[in-house]
Amino acid sequence: MKNKLVSLEAALAPVQSGATLAIGGSLLRRQPNAAVRELIRRGVKDLTLLTWATTTATDMLAAAGAVRRWEGIYAGMFSHGLAPNFRRGVQSGAITVRDFSECAIVARFRAAAAGLAFMPVRSLLGSDMATRNPEQIRPMACPFTGDKLHAVAAAEADFTIIHGYAGDRYGNVQWPVVRDSDDIDQLMASGARRLIVTVEKIIPHEQVKAQPTLTYIPGQWVEAIVEVPHGAHPVACDSLYDEDEEHLRLYLDHAKTPDSMGSYLDRYVRTPRTHDEYLQASGAAARLPSLSVQQG
Amino acid sequence: MTDFTPTEMMTIAAARALKNDDVCFVGIGAPSAACNLARLTHAPQITLIYESGTLQTRPNVLPLSIGDGELCDTALTTVSVPEMFRYWLQGGRITIGFLGGAQIDRFANLNTTVVGSYDAPKVRLPGGGGAPEIATNCGEIFITMAQSPRSFVAGLPFVTSMGHGRTGRERRDMGIKTKGPTRLITDLCVFEPDPETKEMSVVSIHPGVTREKIQENTGWPVRYAAEVVATPAPTAQELEVLRDIQARTKKAHGGSQ
C-alpha cells in the first residue's frame, strides 16, 4: 500500500484555477472548510462547484471571487438564512447557477461512479430546473414503458474534496457509525476521479483493520489524505464538535458587505499561514473545549 | 373559545389532515410541527420520515434540521440519504409529502429558487433541496404556508416543485400517477384542488377570518368550492400538546424556533 498522507498544501497543489470541484458536507456539518481556506489562500479562481447542501464552503469561495459556476441542491446558511456572498455573486451575474433536486444530484454522482454518461430520474418532471438546463438535463422516454423521464448528466468533477472523521496513512477512511446521515460524501467519493480527503485524525492502519465495517472509503480511491483536526470549523463534525455559533455570527456580520467580507478573508483566511494559525486567529482554539461533544 | 394565534390554527389544521396509517415525508418548520402534533394527538401510529433517512422517528423536541441528532436517536432506524431517495421516495413507499415554500401559485406549484429572473435574480434563494421529487413521487402532497400577497402570487418566476403545473393539466399530460397537492393549509383557510381544473379552491375558513382577508393575502382571484365550511377552532388538547412540544423545543435549542 502506498503512503498517501501529505500536508494540506501538497494535497491541494494540483487544484488549479478553472477546475471543477465536488465539495462534500451537508448544511452546517463537515464542510471541508480548511481545504477551502487553503484554496483561497492560494488564489485559485474560476471554479465550478458541484455540491449537496452547501453553506460555508461555497459562500467563502464566492466571497473570494473564486466561483464561476455552481451546481447543487441548496446553497444557504441553513438556520442563519441565505448565503450572503453566494447570493451577491449570483445576483450580480458573476456566478452561473444550475439547480438540481436531491434525487437528480444523487443520480449524477451515481452515474459518475458507474462510468455512465447519465442516469434517468423522474423527479424533475414539471420543474424549471429541467427547462432551464437543457445542457445537463434532457427529456427521455423510458425504453421499456415509454414513461416520460429526464436523463441527468454524470457529475464529472476534476477533484472531489471531502472532510471525514478518521483514516490511515494509506487513505482508508472510516466513519464512526455504520450509517451516517444527511450528506452524500461516500457517494461523491465513489464517483471521484481525484479524491482529496481531510480527516480529523490519522489512526494506525491496525485500528482501521480492527473495524472493517466502518471503512467506507478504501484507500485505492484516494489521491491524498491530510490530518486536519477541526477541519470543518466553523461548522460541525458530528460526534466530535458542534458548529461554532459565535464564529458563524462573526462571519455573517462581516458578510454584510463585500468590503467587510474582504477584511474577514484577509484576517482569518489569507493571513494565517496554516490551519493551526487559523484556529488561533479565529478564536476557535480557545472555544474548542466548549464545542466538544464528548460530554454530550 | 380559547385564544390561539393564526399560526397555531394553521399547524393544528395541518395536523388534522394526517391519519394514523400515513407514511409521511416531513419537511422542517411548519410541516414538522404539524406532523408531530398529529403523532402526539390523533395519529400515534403515523410513520414520520425525514429526508435525512430517519424512519419512524418520534422526536421529543422539534428538530432544527433534517440532520438533527434527535431524529436519529428516536427513529426505528436511519438509512443513508441516497438510499432514502432511491428506494423510499422514488420507490413509491411514501403516502404523504409535506411541503412549504417561499412562493406558491393557484395550481400549488412552489418556488424556493429565485425571485426575479433565473440568470440575474433579484433574490437568490437557497434552492429546492428534495422538494421536486417529494412533489412528484409521494402519493399526495400537503402544503402548509402562511398567506401574504408576496408569497401567494399570480405567476411564479421559477417552478421548483410542480404542483398541478402551469395549466393544471401537466401531471396527467406527463403521465405522473401521484395526486400532487391535495390540500393547502394556510393561516387563514384550507384549499383543495378543484376536481376538474385543479385550481386550488377554498374549502374551509378558519375562525374569525373573512373572505376579504383571504383575498387581500392572495395574489390571484380566489375561488371557493361549492360548499365552504368553517374550520373548527383548536381544541384545548390540541393547543396544549402543540404549546408543550414548542416549549420543550425552545428549552432544548436555546430559543431558536
Distance between the termini of chain A: 37 Å
What's the number of extended β-strand segments of chain B? 14
* N→C terminal distance of chain B: 26 Å
Largest interface: A-B, 49 and 53 residues
* CATH topology label of the largest domain in chain A: Glutaconate Coenzyme A-transferase
Which spans of chain A of ≥5 residues are poorly predicted at pLDDT below 50?
Answer: none
Quote the beta fraction of chain B: 15-25%
Brief write-up:
The complex is a heterodimer of chains A (296) and B (257). With 296 residues, chain A is of the alpha/beta class. Helices cover 33% and strands 22% of the residues of chain A.
Keywords:
heterodimer, A: 296 residues, alpha/beta, Glutaconate Coenzyme A-transferase, 14 strands, 33% helix, B: 257 residues, ten-stranded mixed sheet, two-stranded antiparallel sheet, 28% helix, globular, Acyl CoA--acetate/3-ketoacid CoA transferase subunit alpha (chain A), transferase (chain A), NagB/RpiA_transferase-like (chain A)
Structure description:
The complex is a heterodimer of chains A (296) and B (257). Chain A has helices at 8-12, 33-42, 56-63, 84-91, 102-114, 128-131, 185-190, 205-210, 245-254, 258-270, 275-281, 284-291; strands spanning 20-23, 47-51, 53-54, 67-72, 74-75, 96-99, 118-121, 137-141, 148-153, 159-167, 173-174, 195-202, 215-217, 222-227. The model of chain A has no long low-confidence stretch (mean pLDDT 95). In chain A, strands 1, 2, 4, 6, 10, 11, 12, 13 and 14 form a 9-stranded mixed β-sheet that branches. A 3-stranded antiparallel β-sheet of chain A has the order 7-9-8. A two-stranded parallel sheet of chain A has the order 3-5. Chain A is globular. Chain A has 296 residues and is of the alpha/beta class. Chain B has a single domain (6-252), classed as Glutaconate Coenzyme A-transferase, CATH 3.40.1080. Chain B contains 8 helices and 14 strands. Chain B has helices at 6-16, 30-40, 69-73, 81-89, 131-137, 170-173, 211-216, 236-253; strands at 23-26, 47-50, 54-55, 77-78, 96-99, 103-104, 110-111, 114-116, 121-124, 140-144, 181-185, 189-193, 200-205, 223-230. In chain B, strand 2 (47-50) and strand 3 (54-55) form a beta hairpin. Chains A and B meet through strand 5, helix 4, strand 6 and helix 5 of A and strand 4, helix 4, strand 9 and helix 5 of B. Chain B: This is 3-oxoadipate--succinyl-CoA transferase subunit B. Chain B: Keywords: Transferase. Chain B: GO terms for molecular function: CoA-transferase activity.
